[in-house]
Design brief:
16 helices, 3 domains, six-stranded parallel sheet, Beta Polymerase, domain 2, 444 residues, Rossmann fold, four-stranded antiparallel sheet
Length: 444
Amino acid sequence: MDQTLFIVGINHRSAAVGLRERLAFADDEIAAALGRLRDSSPAVLEAALISTCNRVEVVGVASDTARAADETLTFLSADRKVAQAAFADVVYSSAGRDAARHLFRVGASLDSMVVGEPQILGQLKTAYAQAAEAGTVGPILHRAFHKAFSVAKHVRQDTLIGHGSVSISSVAVALAGQIFDTLKDKTVMLMGAGKMAELTARQLNALGIESLLITSRTFDHAVALARELGGTAVPYENYKPYLKMVDVLIGSLASAKPVLGPDEFESVIRERRYRPMFLIDMGVPRNFDERLNALQNVYLYDIDDLGALVKRSIGDREREAEKAEQIVELEVESFLKWLAGLDLTPTIKDIRYSVERLRDVELGRHRGWLAQLEPAVRERVELLTHGLTNKLLHRILSGLKHHDDKTPDAAFAAEVARRLLGAELDSQVHDLDDADDDDDTGTD
């Protein structure tokens, strides 16, 4: 039975952050969630779950991809407690060639909010590791993900797609420079341990900010990063009194709901005497209540706001993306040929067995006169028949392995080959075996 890749999900192009955060999974939830998907979705044979700021996608393998996609959507709705009607208009689904292309484009950062950003490859590797931990990775998903990693490496090496400073973090830093006359006398607080937020804090720190405060639910992490960047670690349970000192607040906490809202923030603004405060929310789900943006001199930007600014600054990366797309297409073809080869493997084994078995039977029928030959001559006959068998097999198997979209369907070709060179030859072999039992002379 044919098995193929499928993808179901939403991303920053199809759905706003408000919906993405409702369907998002925390890292420590994913392995268990994949187990629930496997148990509740019989059509899904293999599965991985990618949940980042920009996307929530299930990458799977199925024989019936339409049924598997339906079961996956039902699972997402039930597991995240979000009605399917809420995301029916923004969800996308693809299978086969389109699914492989999508996965490879994601890995190569062609589908990212910032084309060429490097973080997505690490996120993809994490998703694969989580699926492996959950036991939901099989041979096809294993091959697909490792091919995606290879494509990403190829794109990085052969294009300039990752060059330049266009990124979410660089845009956030540039925006901070527009809000404040100078950054040198400013205080920055980093909340959480997100990679993108950490990168933003590093860039602000490199500009010579006055002080950097770091708070995290894991205090040891805050201490280690503060030591590395020359900042100050603040216990998470005691960070709020420091907010009145903070000019730039970067949120990257894993939280199901906002940790800061307008009611508790109004007092912070008053204590600051309404000096400007820049909030960068990189959390999905969001860390800061969107109503904070209505407060006087509070400038709140979430991940989608920053993404919109990035689109205005892309430049040369778009041209390099065209080269990357060509690399992706070549690798899609390579993966599909490998996948088609899985379907042909049983047929290839049957054909090889039948042809080689026929050779052995024919030699057995003539063992009488072959035994009378000189050893060197008998060896030459053996080599001759072996060479003819290999040439025949090579021609047949090459024809099956090198099919493409212009030739008949692979499954049809395999079935024809099986009938002509499998079942029929096996039948002949059986008849020859019977004849050989009645022929002790070895003559023809």
